[in-house]
Specification:
The chain has six helices and two strands, in the order H-E-H-E-H-H-H-H. With about 140 residues, the chain is mainly α. The protein has one domain. Strands 1-2 form a two-stranded parallel sheet. About 15% of the residues are buried.
Length: about 140
């Protein structure tokens, strides 16, 4: 998702395991076009040394929530002191809003299909529908 307008940019469905979300995020991050430094936001699940190191190696600034519970966070002051980090943390909830919409309106709460290919296709289709819904809201906000 891009933070400015809350539109979904890329989707990916994986099997559920302990690292699937981070692995998928790295695969999608590799496909970000351009050479300009970008940021990538995420929740506390993404605050691991390996994930942060991989992102920095790809010229991506990790704007993930710090997980200081019983351990040291992989996100240090290089990142947290900047105003952009705070903005990313506030905008992070938009992805949860899209997931909520996709579960309730897009009928993904209990998927009737089986298999990664079929579920992945449906997830991408519902994500595109969410973008159309979001574009309508953006158009209304611009006209107001």
């Amino acid at each position: 998702m891009e933070n400015r307008n809350g539109l979904l940019v890329r989707t990916m469905v994986t099997e559920a395991n302990g690292t699937a979300e981070r692995d998928a995020a790295l695969l999608m991050a590799e496909k970000i076009p351009g050479v300009k430094r970008v940021t990538l936001g995420g929740d506390k699940n993404y605050d691991t040394k390996d994930f942060v190191r991989e992102l920095r190696g790809m010229n991506i600034t990790p704007h993930v929530a710090q997980n200081n519970q019983n351990r040291a966070s992989a996100i240090d002051e290089r990142t947290t002191w900047r105003a952009g980090y705070e903005v990313s943390q506030r905008k992070r909830k938009r992805i949860e809003e899209s997931f909520g919409w996709m579960k309730i309106i897009g009928l993904l709460k209990k998927v009737k299909l089986r298999g990664l290919d079929k579920v992945g296709w449906l997830f991408t289709f519902v994500g595109a529908a969410y973008n159309l819904y979001r574009l309508q809201k953006l158009k209304t906000a611009v006209m107001a």
